[in-house]
Amino acid sequence: MAFCISCGQMQVDGTRFCRFCGGQQPGDQLIARLRMEAEAIRFHLQQLQAQQAQQMQQFGQQQQNQGNRW
User: Fold this and answer.
1) Is the full-model pTM beyond 0.90?
2) β-bridge partners, 25
């Protein structure tokens, strides 16, 4: 299922015009490209989050090691 880009009503996949507002819907090629871009962004975000978690873990270990010296 898809949603109208104009009014937000639920549409059947492949619909060219919204049955509620008449707004033209994006073509299948555009939708496929946008889905690929969204997946690439999601993958990149997951990588950044994993990197950030690793950095936080390293920072915590450094803080713990410094606390043991005093």
Assistant:
1) no
2) none
